[in-house]
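Protein 1 of 2
SEQ + STRUCT:
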Amino acid sequence: MFDQRGSAARSFLGRFAGGTFLGSLGIAILGSAVFLSFHHSPYASASDSGPLATNMIRSAPDFNWRQSPSSVLNSAGTNSVTLDPCPPGVIAAEPAYYVYISGTGTPEAVRVAGGSCKADGHAGTLEFTTAHPHPPGYVISSASGGIQEASVAARFIPTNPKGVSQAGKVVVPPGEYDVFAPISFRAANQTIDFEGSVVNCYTPNDACIFVGDSKTSTAYENITLNGPRGRPMTVAGTKPFIEVNAQQTRLLNVSTRWPPRGGSFGTFVQVDDDQAFLLDGLDTGVGGASVTCNPSYCGAIVTAPGPFNKWSAVGWLKNLNISLQCGGKGVEWISGNGLKISDSVIQGWSVFGVRVSNQRGGYTGLITDNVYFEAGACQDHSPYGNVGNAAIIGEGVQVKISGLGANSPYALFPNWGAPSGSHDWLYWVVPVSAKYGDGIPLPAGRAVNNGSGSIKGVFPRIAGASGYKILKMDWDDRTVPRPYPRGTGNYLLTTIQQSSCATLTCSFTDNGESLSSYTNVGENMTTNIYMPRLDFWPGSIVLSPGEDMSSERHTVPVLTLQADVVGVGGVVTTQPAWEVTGEANTLMGSPATPPAAANIEALHTNGIAPFPGGTILMAANMPQLAPPGYKGRLNFGHAGRAGGFTPVITLGDSNWGKTWSASNHRPLADANDLDLGYENKIDTFYTRAQSEIRDYVGKFPDGNPQEKLTASAKTFNVPVTINGDLTVTGKCAGCTGTGGAAATAPSRWTVSLTAQKAAIASTNFCGSSPCGSGQYRISYYVDATGACASAGNGSTALTISWKDETSAKSLRVPLVGAGISSGNSLALGQPANFGGGDLSIWSAGNAPITYSTAYTACASGTGTYAVRITVEKVQ
C-alpha cells in the first residue's frame, strides 16, 4: 500500500535538489549519491505552528537531506546559504540545530544561528558561522543522519492553551548513522526508537545525543529513547554519548558498538538536572565499556556531575550490565540528590563501582537493591596505579544496601610485595590535618614478603590533608582476627608531607626500619579527630563527610550506612569510634586485608566463622556517654503478670531441642536454664542457674569468687559490712552468743593470686581502711608454678607489715618447704618448689596490715608463682 499522499510526495521529491524519484521503493538520486528508503511514509513538512501531515511516526532516513547550494562560502566566519526547498524538519529558528558541510574544504558541523527556513517546502536560508572556507562544490546536509529532523517533524505545538513542542514518535531503522553534531531532542512526550541502529558519534566537543534544553531542565519532559547504541569515533573522548537536561527522561537499553582503535566516550550517560530520571537497561557487553580512563581524565559509565541547585539530578537505574573490564568507573553521582540502583551487575572497575557525593551540595544518598558487585584485579589499569579499588564510595550521604551477602560490595587492597612469602606486612595511612590533627587509620595495602627487602607503597592522595603517618603491623597470614593498630603500640613507620605527593597519589618506602610508638587517636572517646573527605580510597564501602572537618562539629542526624548484610572489616570510615557508622540485619566476616574499623550494629551476627560475631549496641552517639538517668538501650516494655515469673534473657538453654522445635522459639522455661528476668509485675528481679551463681569483682573468673550462692549456702570471701541491724534466726557458728541474739562474727580475709610474674606492691588485707585492733593469725603458702629454661637466681619472698602498740613492724616471713634458701626465699623456675607457714601478730588498729612480694626473674624464661594468704582475727 502506498499512502494517498504519495503523488504529492513524488512531486516534491522530483524537484528536491534536482533528484529523481524511482518507484515505490522511495529511492532518491541526489547528484551522484543514492539514499535508500524502504519506508512508504512520504517526507513530512513541518512549520513553527505544527506538522502539515497527520502521521506522527517519522523515520530518520526520510529526513537525511542533502543539497548543493550556490551560496558562496569562500571564507570562514558568518555565512548564509539558500536551500530550495527547505527540507522537512529543517527550521532555521530551531535551537541547537546543526548542519554538516563537506565536499570541499575541511568538513565541519556548524550550528544554525538564524535564517528563514521553516520546513514548509519553500525556499529559505540558513545562517551560521564556519571555521573553514568551503569553495564551490561543497555539500550541506543533515548533521544527524536525519534523526533530529525527524524529531522536529514528528512533534506538534498544542493550542488552547498553547504549549511547548511535543509528542510524536521517531523510528531510527536498523543501520549506521553518522552524527557530526549533537542530536537535540526538544519535544515533550516524544519517543525515539533506535532499536537495531548504530549511531557513529563524530562529536569530540559535545554530547552525541542531547535530551532537553541546555539552559533549563523544565522546558521538556517525558522523552523516551529506546535502544540507543553509540559508537565513539573520537580517540580518548571526554564527552557523553547521551546528555540529559529535561524532566522524567526514560532511557531504555543503552549500549555501544565496538569503537575504532582508541575510540571512547567520556561517559555513556550524563544526567544534568533531571529530577525524575530513569535508565532501564544498559549493557557494556555488546560494545565494550568504551569509557576514557587515564591519569588526566577517568570517566564513569553513568554520571551526574552536579552541583546541587543547578544540576540536582535524581535517578533510578536498573537492569544494568556494567562490566568494565578494568576500564574505569561504574556510576558517579555527585548531584547531591537521590540515586537508586537495582537488579544490576557492576563489576571489573579499575577505580570504583559506585560513588555518590554531596560535596557539591545536597542531602540525599544511595540505595542499592539486588546489585551484584564484583571487584577485579585491575592494578595494572588504574590511573592511580597499584592502590586497590572501591566498590561503593559515599561522601556526606546515606547509603542503603539491600540484597544477599554473596552479592555484597567488596573491593581489593593492593599487594606491594610478592605473590607469596613468610610475612604479610599490613599498612594503614593516618591522614593528618594542620588544623584538625590526626584522623582514623585508613587501611591502605599489604606486602607479602620473606621479612626483608624494600617495599614501596602507593595510596590515593587526600585533597585536604597536610601530611600522612604510615602505620605497619606484621601478620602471619593465618591468625584471626587480622591485626589492627589498636591503642598504643610500635606501629609508626614514617611520616610524609603532602608536598611530596604526586597529583593523584602519595608514596612511601619501607626499608625495614624499626617502628616507633603511636597512639590511635581515633579510638579516644573524648578527643576530636580529623575527618577528611575521601574522593577515592580502597575499600568495600568507603564513608566520609562531604567536606573536611573536625569531629568537634560533626553531627549524626541519621545513620550513614544501612544494609541487609555487610562484611564489617571492609567498611572504611573516617568517623570517630564513638559514632555508630551503620546498622545491618546480618554481619558477616570480611576478607578485607588490612582490615578497617567501624562501629556496625547488627540484629544477627551469626556467620560461617568458628563462633558468632559480637553484637554492638552503642549507648550514645556522643564523645562521652549521655547524661545519666536515661532508660536502657534494650527495653522490654511493660510489666508481666502478677504471681508468675518472666525470663527476659535466657543466657543458657538447657533444652535447646524444645526451643528449636517450638513454633515461636519461646516454649515454657526449664528448671536448669540459665536466665534472668523478673517476678510479679517487674517489682522483683531474679537471676537463676542450675548449680551456682558467682560474683567476681576486679578479676577474671578463676573459681574463687568474692561472693557465691548455691542451693545450700551463701558464701562471702570478702569482709562484709552491715550498716543496719543484723538479725540471725538460726545458729551462728563462730559467733559470740546464741541463735537469735546479736553477735559479732570474726573477721577473715583471703588472698588467692596465680600466674604472678612480677613483684606485688604493698597491699592492705582489709581494703581501704585499717583492719582494727586485735590479734591476728596469718597463714600463707607460696609455690613456683612455671618452669624456666634457665632458673638462675629466680626467686620470690613474702613480706608482712603491721603496727603494734610500740611501732611499725615488717617481716620477711619464714618459709618451710622445697626450694627454700636463707629460710625465707623461694627459688622459681621449678614447679616442685613451695613454701608456707603461720604468723601471729598484734595490730594496734591505726595502720593497715599489708603484704608484698619480692621478685627476681629467671636467667632465661619466665618464672611464675602463686601466693595464697588467710588472715583471721582471733581476738
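Protein 2 of 2
SEQ + STRUCT:
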Amino acid sequence: MNWLRELGRRIRMLPHRRQFDADLEEEMRLHLEMRQQEHLQSGMEAGDARAAARRRFGNVTVLKEISHMAWGWERLEHLAQDVRYSLRMLHQNPGFTATAVIVLAIGIGANTALFSVINGVLLRPLPYPHPEQLVILRESKPNFATGSVSYPNFLDWQKDNRTFASVAMMRGNQSFTLTGLGEAEQVDGIFVSSGFFEQLGVIPALGRMLAPGEDRIGGAPTILITAGFWKRKFGSATDVLGKSLTLDGRDYTIIGVIPATFDLLGSLRSREVYVPIGQWSNPLLMNRAAGLGIGAIGRLKPGVSIEQARADMERVTRNLAAAYPDADKGIGAAVIPLRKWELGYVQSFLLVLFGAVGFVLLIACVNVASLLLARSSRRAHEFAIRAALGAGQGRIVRQLLTESTLIAAIGGSLGVLLSAVGTQTALRMLPTTLPRAAEVGVDGHVLFFAAAISLGAGIFFGLAPALRTARRDPQETLKEGGRGGSGTRHRAQGALVAAEMALALVLLIGAGLMIRTLAALWNVNPGFEANKVMTFGFSLPPSMTNASPEAIRAALREVHDKFQSAPGVQGVAFSWGAVPLQGDDEWLFWIDGQPKPASENDMNWAIDYVVDYDYLQIMGIPLKSGRFFTARDDEHAARVAVVDEVLADKFFPGQNAVGKRLHLNSTGEIVEVVGVVGHVKQWGLDTDDKEALRAQMYTPFMQLPDKAIGTGAGVVVRSDRPAMVFESIRQANNQMSSEQVVFGAQTMREVIASSLAERRFSTILFGIFAGLALVLSSVGIYGVVSYIAGQRTQEIGIRVALGAQRADVLRVVLGEGAKMTAVGMVIGLLAAFGLTRLIAKLLFGVSTTDPLTLVAVSSLLALVALAACYIPARRATRVDPIVALRYE
C-alpha cells in the first residue's frame, strides 16, 4: 500500500507546489549564505568564499529539480508546459493553424458522420426486448424467392409450431378512405393480428392493444391509431378512446394509440391506422394459395436456435403439404433473423462507404503531415538551439506530438459539429431507403469514435515530422543558419503528396464508376415511355362499397370519362394488380391442351397486369404482334389476354403465341391470347434480368370477376404536363363527389428515380468523398510546391541572374509537381485495379477497369494538380534576382 500513501502525499502537495518551491529556494539560499560565511571567517576573499560555497553545496538548479520531482508531478507539469507552448505557437501561426484544422475537420467530420450512420443502423441493437429472438417468416417456393404467407397457412403455422413463443402477422400497403373528419382523404393502414405489438414490446401511448380473438373474421370492428394521426385529427385528446372512425364507409371503434417511436423495419412510419386482419373483406383471404402480401413475424422461445426453428417449421409445412397438397405442395417456410432481414443489402454497402471515407481521412492526415514537415524545416534552427541547450530527442518529439495532437483535437471538435449538422441534413435531402434512419445521431459511441480517430490522426500525421526533426544534427543545422535544406529534404514531402494523389485517384475512380453506373441505368429502356406519364390512386365514395358489380363498373366508366375530359389530359387508363417498378401480383395458369397440374405450385406463374384498353398507348409499351384490348373487351365479351415476349418465348418457343389459350387458376376462366407486347422491367432496371419470375400477362380491367371488382383502382394518365395535370383531375373528381378520393400522384420518371434511390444515394456519397479528396489533394500539392519554391528562392535568383528565362523557371517548378503527381497517379491506378473490385456488385453496365472512366478521372486529377502547381510556379518566375541573392 506504499504506492497509495505516495499518491496521497503527491495529491496533497498539488495546491502547495508554489509555496513549496519558494520555501525550498529560500532554504537553499540560507544554506549557501551560511557556508559562504564560514569561508569568510576562515580568511577567504568574498568571491572565493561564494564560489567555494557553491562547489560544496552542488548545482542549485539540479537540486531544485530533484527536490521538485520528489514532491511533484513531473510528467503532468511537462505536459502542461508543452500544451501552453503549443497553443502559443499555433496562435502565432494562424494561417497554418486554420488550414490544418479545417483540413482535419473535413476528414474527421466525414468519418464521424458515416460512423454515426453505421452506429445507428448496424451497431445498435434493435429497439425490441431480446431482439435476437425475433425472426421473419416467409413462404418459400421452388425456384422462387421467398414470398408472402397465405392467411390459412399463417393460422396453422401459429397453431402447430413448437419453437415460437408467439407468431403474429401484418399486411401493409392498405389504403382506406377516411370520412367524417373534415374533407375526405386517403389514409395508409396495416392489417395486423392480435399479439403483433406485444411480441415487439410496444406499449400503447393510450388505451390497449388487440385482445386475443379480436382479429378473427367476424370480430368487432376495432382500430388502433398512431400518435401522429391522433394529434392530427384529434389534437391528442385523451377522450379519443371509444370514438368512431369511418373508413371505407364502415365505423371502427378506437381502442388504443400506438406510440410515435414504433417503426418496424423502417416501413411503418407513414402508416396511420392498424386494423385487425379479420376486418379485411377480401374474398381471397381464406384461400390457402393466396399470399396477398401477408408477412409473419415470430419470437423464438428462450434457448431455441434458428436451426431448431427451421427444423420445426419444416415439420409443420411438411404436414400441411400432406393435408393440402393442391395448395401447399412444395411450400416451405423461410426463417430469417429480423436483423438480417432489416439490414439486407445495407451492411456491405455501408462498409464500402466507410472504407471510402477512410481514404478522405488518410488524405487529410497526409496533407497536415506535409504541412508539418514544411513547418518543421522552418523551425529547424529553433530545435537545434534547444538540442544544443540539452533538450533530448524525446523531449522534442513530445513537443511536436503535443502540437499535432492539439491540432487534431481542435479539428476533431469542429468535425463533430460538422457531422452532427451534415448527417441529419443528408438523411433529409439524400434519396435513400436507409433502415433505422431515425436512430442515426451523435451519442457516446460516436463521440468516443471521434476522440479516438482525432488522437490517432494527431499521432499519425505528427510522428513522421517529429522524428525527422529530432534526428537532425544540431551542429549541421546551426551551420546552415536555418536557410532551408537540400533537395533531399523534400523527398518526404514528395512521398506524402504522391500518397495523396494515389488515394484521391482511387476515390475518384470509384465515384466515376458509380456515376457511369447511374448514367447507364437511366439509359436502360424500362419497357415503357416514362415521359409524360403520371400514376395515382383513386377510390369511389364509401357508399359504393356494397353496390352491385354492375353499378361499380358504371361508376368507374363515369370517372374514366370525367378524368379523360379534364384539361391537359391526353389519355386515361385504370389498372389493378402489378405496377411497373412498384408492386407485383401474379396469375397461376396452365396451357390449354395440357393436363392440369397436380397442385398450384406445379402451375406456371406470370406477373399480372389488369389494365384498360388505353393502357398500352399511354405507357408506350410496344406491340409485337396481334392486337391489344379495345373498349369492346368488356365484362360481356369473350375473355382475352395479352402476353409479353418473355412469356411467349418461354412457353411457346418457335410458335406464334397469338391464338393460344390459357387456363387462369384464380378465376377458373380460359382466356385467349390476342397479342404479344414488349417486356417491362418490373423488378428494377438492373435486376429484372436476374429474377426467376419475368413472364407477364395483361387482362382487361372490365373483365375482372364480379367478386374482384372493387371501388378503388390505380390510374395512369398521359399529359404534356404530367406533374401539373393532377390538380385539374382533382377538381374534376371533387365535382363528382366530396367523398371520392384521388391520392398518391407520381410521374413515372419519379417512379424510376425512386427505384434508383439506393444507387443515387451511394453515387452522391462517393461523389462527395471524391470531391473532398480532390480538394484536399490539390491543397496538399499546392502547399508543398509553394514551400519547395520558397526554399529554392536563392537558387532561382542565381538562375535568373545567369540568364534563365521565366519559362525555364516555370518548367523547373512545374516539373517538381508533375513528378509527384505522376508517381502518385501510377500508384493510384495500380491500387484502383484491386480496390474497385469491392464495389463491383454496385456497378451496372460498366466494368471495374472501364477505360473511359480511368482516362477521364486521371486527366481531371492531373489538370487539377498542375493548376495547383501553376500558382506557386508563376510566383517563382517573378523573383527579383537582387533580392533572391540576399535571401536566407
